[in-house]
DNA sequence: AGCTCTTATGAATCATTGA
DNA sequence: GTCAATGATTCATAAGAGC
């Protein structure tokens, strides 16, 4: 078996990537810091400056991505003064001008979105997962995501517990998944461009930007084993941990030193997890269990 | 009981609305012709020209909508040459320049979306429902659209024990205090900005732009009984039929005569009036309708 | 195992207060 | 006034504990 490498690099991706050659990566999947009024958070920048800040970075992404590669950008605009901010729309337009193709917009439906109540707004339960490409002919393994539950379902088809039905329904939302028994021997269904995932609510001290299932899904869809994944805003290292577990090489870049430390721990545990064949949650709490 | 009126008017909404006074409508909800679909029937509306075509119409919408009213625009860009077209993004930006507030973007998740398979694209299972307003203080009846609560509340409300009010400590972190008193006597929760509705599989010959549940939801949310709803691209009349059933007055405008006929059938005899653009004079098509 | 019940918590938003 | 910080509101999910 070939060795799988996962690197976490401390620095600003615009600088770090400038030292990489062209056409290195098969997939870029990331959840950049959102524009925010609060200056003291993660490098917080004003929404008005966001596009200007992003473009030099995406220029590097465009260069280091293979022609058959894909760039997935998870982002959502905040409400401000009663309005949705338009910086994401402007970013899409600017990226197209930069040379990207705006291939698709996936919706991540956050089933357990943040609570709250306001006089003229409901809770925000979705985020954008924007797909950009360099060419129309990119790699896409549709079959890899045909079985939403993966090996898990095959192992459990015999028992047919209540939870099996529930989890299947929540993944597919297709209306025909009432009973997992119907699924046996049936032709597998392709997913749509709407992803139903819960955010992770674990007892951890630091929060991941997105749940592991999100990068996992895109890595399955847009890469093969042995390919190389980049997350230029890797945060606590979720993307690299998932990539390693799935036997994809990965490079994660993070500007905040304290996150880099966490990210490296995550990889180490993930490496161990290769033998476990356990779920995501097992890996999260791995240190407790072993 | 006051009488509820439903009018279907044959004509182009930009002309028809010019004869209406300011501030007439409480809600505008519509699903306009998509840019690339009915190109031949609507006079060559290429995506590139869409914004230009739309703005004179939305200028009328802005004028005839009450300050407390809401404009809901159901729209989705199609994929063309492997890319999503950007005309909807450009439209949002243009509408803001025109004076609209872009208050929210609801996602309509189409549970049973159109089947099909493509080499590098999954089925499109969602559409945008863009919410625009004239002011920040618009009418919104949140209680009217509440949904059954998750199961956890049922069990929870019986016990009402202990530290249900804890987490109020609220010193570190922006964690919520959970004040169980807010749940007493409640069986329903507020929805989110993601709508899960199936498309309708009716046997009608025309293709319904949206299922009845969609205008119904927004009419519930943004109007009271006796209010007045406008659909400037009413098509087969779905919006007016729903409005009448919910005891809201409505005006539907449609440029295609054959759709006007269908719309007429949808509305109970005696409760609707069908007008021709440009006045009540008997004209060429008048005999067909009356 | 397989239930139920308990508990923790998350890329949120707005009105108000303070500098 | 303009901008930043604080307080108030709230629900789906999963881990863990108990039976």
List the helices and strands and how they pair.
The structure is a homodimer of 290-residue chains.
Chain A: E1 6-10, H1 13-16, E2 25-30, H2 50-64, E3 65-75, E4 79-80, E5 83-84, H3 87-98, E6 101-110, E7 126-133, H4 151-156, H5 162-172, E8 194-197, H6 213-222, E9 228-231, H7 238-245, E10 249-254, H8 257-273, H9 280-284, H10 286-289
Parallel strand pairs in A: 1-10, 2-3, 2-9, 6-8, 9-10
Antiparallel strand pairs in A: 3-7, 4-5, 6-7
Chain A binds a DNA duplex (19 and 19 nucleotides) through residues 31, 33-34, 36-39, 74-76, 78-82, 110-119, 121, 123-124, 127, 161-163, 198-203, 207, 209-210, 281, 285.
Explain what this protein looks like in three dimensions:
2 copies of one chain form a homodimer. Chain A is of the alpha/beta class and 290 residues long. Helices cover 32% and strands 20% of the residues of chain A. The first copy, chain A, has 10 helices and 10 strands. In chain A, the strands form 2 sheets. Chain A has an 8-stranded mixed sheet. Chain A has a two-stranded antiparallel ribbon with strand order 4-5. The interface between A and B is large, with 42 and 43 residues. The first copy, chain A, binds a DNA duplex (19 and 19 nucleotides) through β4.
């Amino acid at each position: 078996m070939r060795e799988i490498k996962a690197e976490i690099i401390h620095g600003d991706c615009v600088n770090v990537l400038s030292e990489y050659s062209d056409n290195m990566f098969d997939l870029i999947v990331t959840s950049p810091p959102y524009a925010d009024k609060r200056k003291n958070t993660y490098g917080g920048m004003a929404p008005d400056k966001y596009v200007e800040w992003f473009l030099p970075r995406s220029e590097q992404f465009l260069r280091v991505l293979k022609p058959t590669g894909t760039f997935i950008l998870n982002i959502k605009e905040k409400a401000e003064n009663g309005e949705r901010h338009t910086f994401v729309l402007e970013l899409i337009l600017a990226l197209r001008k930069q040379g990207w193709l705006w291939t698709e917009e996936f919706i991540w439906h956050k089933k357990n979105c943040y609570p709250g109540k306001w006089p003229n707004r409901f809770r925000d339960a979705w985020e954008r997962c924007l797909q950009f490409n360099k060419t129309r002919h990119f790699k896409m393994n549709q079959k890899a995501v045909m079985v939403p539950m993966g090996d898990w379902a095959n192992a459990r088809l015999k028992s047919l517990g209540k939870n099996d039905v529930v989890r299947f329904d929540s993944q597919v939302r297709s209306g025909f998944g009432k009973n997992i028994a119907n699924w046996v021997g049936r032709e597998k269904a392709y997913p749509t461009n709407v992803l139903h995932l819960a955010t992770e609510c674990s007892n951890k001290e630091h929060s991941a930007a997105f749940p592991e299932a999100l990068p996992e899904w895109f890595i399955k869809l847009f890469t093969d084993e042995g390919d190389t994944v980049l997350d230029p805003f890797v945060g606590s290292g979720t993307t690299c941990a998932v990539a390693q577990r799935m036997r994809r090489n990965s490079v994660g870049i993070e500007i905040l030193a304290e996150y880099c430390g966490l990210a490296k721990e995550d990889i180490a545990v993930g490496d161990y997890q290769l033998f476990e064949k356990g779920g995501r949650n097992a890996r999260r709490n791995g240190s407790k269990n072993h």
